[in-house]
What we know:
CATH topology of the largest domain: Quinone Oxidoreductase, Chain A, domain 1
Helix content: 10-25%
Strand content: 25-35%
CATH class of the largest domain: Alpha Beta
Radius of gyration: 20 Å
Order of helices and strands: EEEHEEEHEEEHEHEHEHEHEHEHEHE
Shape: globular
CATH architecture of the largest domain: Alpha-Beta Complex
Largest sheet: 7 strands, mixed
Structural class: alpha/beta
Number of strands: 17
Oligomer: single chain
CATH superfamily of the largest domain: Medium-chain alcohol dehydrogenases, catalytic domain
Number of domains: 2
Distance between the termini: 27 Å
Amino acid sequence: MATLRITPKPATATMKAAQISKPGGDFEIVDRQIPQPDAGQVRIKVKACGVCHSDVLVKEGLLPGSQFPRVPGHEVTGVIDEVGAGVTMWHEGQRVGVGWHGGHDNTCRECRRGDFRNCRNVKVTGYSYDGGYQQYMIAPVEALVPIPDGLTDVEAAPLLDAGITTYNALRNSDAMPGDLVAVQGIGGLGHLGIQFANKFGYNVAAIGRGSENATLAKKLGAHVYIDSQATNAAQELQKLGGARVILATAPSSKAMSALVDGLGPNGKLVVVGAALEPIEVTPSQLIFGSKTIQGWAAGTPAASEDTLHFCVMSGVRPMIETYPLERAADAYARMLSGKAEFRVVLTM
């Protein structure tokens, strides 16, 4: 198949970007010079970029060493339109994505043991360098993910963070087909977690707030819906035998704490919803039944590639609302409102 050649951009060419100039500042749509890739980098013509709750950390300057101005965005899909010196495994015209994992140093203790996800100097897309809220972006080759033909750019974007986070957390949870797996929250993460749990062959219990979520939960693949407003969710899980895994996706530490007693023997509460308050649990809740609490963050580009191919094969898809780049502020506000169904994606 012939390689698509893209005409190089003049050094003075400009693009649109949605940037934050100071911690807590508003989004500004600005003209920037289109960047040039250095050695080991590629330039991506961005097609879509998800708006994730973790972008709050960037916008508000909550991460150590935050630098401004900064362009957020770590659920990026697009097409390579220029490669830097020494890049041989990627080519112009290739569809690629970049997720939360924006690169690693290859030299720290964890990297030398192949644990790139926990690199001590890990780069985060949209924080360590400018992300996908712009028409073109630069990314290191170790952060790239090939996009399969079975997914559109808009579909693939949320899968590079929300998708890989829930897929990777579940497939590394030790749950086996037939085990009771509960998914707390039916939102941006949870609606994908329910789908993955069903496709993995688990007995899926979805936990939400309000009876109005029951129909959607069943449509997504839940076998049981538990309304945490009307019942004690932990007791309901125990009636079902106790959960082997509870995937906590909604960022509410209080709600997570209330679910610990719903774990069965050797059960595990896997936390992917980032809340600022502590989870409250007593030692005896963990000791009796040998229960554990584990946090999980996204994964490497290789795991993102696995996620995308699994979605093509199984039919798992995110539910999406789209906004043009010029309305980045509106898209961000919609995400924060909690009313989006369920992932917000910027299109270029």
